[in-house]
Design brief:
The protein has about 160 residues and is mainly alpha-helical. The chain has 2 domains: about 10-90, Helicase, Ruva Protein, domain 3 (Orthogonal Bundle), CATH 1.10.8; about 115-155, Homeodomain-like (Arc Repressor Mutant, subunit A, Orthogonal Bundle), CATH 1.10.10.60. Helix content is about 60%, strand content about 5%. It has helices at about 20-35, 45-50, 60-70, 80-85, 85-90, 90-95, 105-125, 130-135, 140-150, and strands at about 40, 75-80.
Length: about 160
């Protein structure tokens, strides 16, 4: 209850970028243990991407990015495409330096585009059969309908 007895000033993550590799390793170990995955490290390119970012959301934002990357990673090394889907990587420098535009914003936009593309591709493959499309996408029919509405996909 007496949290202010010894106030500690910790600078924001954007002012101590040298901590990013240590924190990234910590979060990788934490989530690999929780999720029972075999991810062993993060690529230099991925780390460079994390080092370039301004981290307005601080350590918690970094933690969320690492958790998402672990979920998306299908090998032993986190690659840039796990941090950002590939099309967003090409525009990351431009977008990350736009005032008020966070890494989470970039990621959400990229995921929306990737999901829209995959849903349209699958609906075309199934000739518009949403039940079959949901099965192929391994999501529920209700989730598919929600995403179609959310992304404004014309079927």
């Amino acid at each position: 209850y007496r949290l202010n007895v010894f106030p500690i000033k910790i600078p924001p993550l954007r002012e101590r970028k040298e901590d990013i590799p240590l924190l990234a390793d910590f979060f990788i170990n934490k989530y690999c243990t929780e999720m029972k995955t075999s991810i062993k490290n993060i690529s230099k390119e991925s780390l460079d991407l994390l080092m370039k970012y301004e981290w307005k959301g601080n350590v918690r934002e970094l933690e969320n990015v690492i958790e998402r990357a672990i979920i998306l990673c299908d090998g032993e090394t986190i690659m840039p495409e796990h941090i950002m889907p590939t099309k967003s990587i090409e525009r990351i420098d431009e977008k990350l330096h736009t005032e008020g535009y966070t890494l989470e914003d970039v990621t959400k936009e990229a995921i929306r585009k990737a999901e829209t593309h995959k849903i349209l591709e699958t609906l075309k493959e199934t000739k518009g059969n949403k039940t079959k499309a949901a099965e192929i996408l391994k999501i529920s029919y209700k989730t598919l309908l929600t995403k179609i509405k959310e992304y404004g996909i014309n079927t």
